[in-house]
Amino acid sequence: MKTILLVFLSIMMSDLAGISRTPSSAGKEKKYPSFYKEGVVVDGVSREWENTLFMFNSASKVAYAIVNDSVALYICIRVANEPEQMKIVRNGMDLIFNSQGKKKAEADLHYPVGGGRMNEHLGPGNQNMGIQTDRKRIHMMMLLQMQDMELTGFREGVNGFQHYKSGRNGITAAVTWDSTNTMVYEARIPFMVFRGDITLSAPLSFGIMIKGTPKPKEGETDKMNEGGQEGMQGHGGGMRPGSNLGHEQGMLGSNDTNQFEDDVIWRMMMIAKKE
């Protein structure tokens, strides 16, 4: 009986000691999620990304995940909301990094760069084609406008423009649409392209910025809509970035008031180590 009592008291003391113990590094990693993952292929297909890796931002309707292996960061972004997809194509998207854990860009991968043009691709015979029957063509037109990326704030020799598939300095990106018409965006950014050693960052700030469409000046909305109809009938030129907004959103089946707002998402993370 005395032996049982001593064992019980020993367990109790052990539990109390555990409660008062200083949080371990594992606790910090839980606060700033880190995920080590090998075998990510940047092809715009997210089958290798487990759903548990993603976080969802309700304001922008964007799901995103960031992981790393021993040499690079990998980002996957899923955008199911079609007006948000249009914002990305038209106005561009930035992947932002800060090694000091601040919500301020040190390094920026700007892809797509924005300025997507669409109506010029639709000929006179297509004015009655709805978005439900022509989505694949719309997506192909979008991809034609998403060829270049711009890099700023990285180490010397990395910055500037490059084709998104070139793989220069190990940086690459890909965009596709899956069977549910969700836009899937993937990017790879090696550790070596950063100015400092981000593997020592505690934590690393990672941001996504999707620019809103510039608000039309008073009285311009009707003119834009008229221009959109004219473009569809083949009587006008191509769509200028920032114009024909009403028509494009009609094609996407939405009139989202969030179109004019910048969407900014920040996440703190640790660089994960291979176990």
Give me the secondary-structure topology.
Blueprint: H1 2-20, H2 25-31, E1 55-57, E2 62-68, E3 72-79, H3 82-91, E4 93-98, E5 107-110, H4 131-144, E6 148-152, E7 160-163, E8 172-177, E9 183-190, E10 204-210, H5 220-232, H6 245-251, E11 263-269
What features would you highlight for this structure?
275 residues; alpha+beta; Immunoglobulin-like; 6-stranded antiparallel sheet
Describe the structure.
This protein is an alpha+beta fold and 275 residues long. The chain contains six helices and eleven strands. The strands form two sheets. A six-stranded antiparallel β-sheet has the order 7-6-5-4-10-11. Strands 1-2-3-9-8 form a five-stranded antiparallel β-sheet. Helix 5 (220-232) crosses helix 6. Residues 4-29, 118-129 and 226-255 have low confidence and may be disordered.
Write down the CATH class: Mainly Beta
Mean pLDDT: 77
Computed structural class = alpha+beta
Q: Measured on Cα atoms, how large is the radius of gyration? A: 24 Å
| Beta content | 15-25%
Q: Count of helical segments? A: 6
Q: State the domain count.
A: 1
Morphology call: globular
| DSSP strand tally | 11
- Summarize the main sheet: 6 strands, antiparallel
Helix-strand string: HHEEEHEEHEEEEEHHE
Describe the structure in brief.
The chain is α+β, with helices and mostly antiparallel strands and 275 residues long. It is built from six helices and eleven strands.
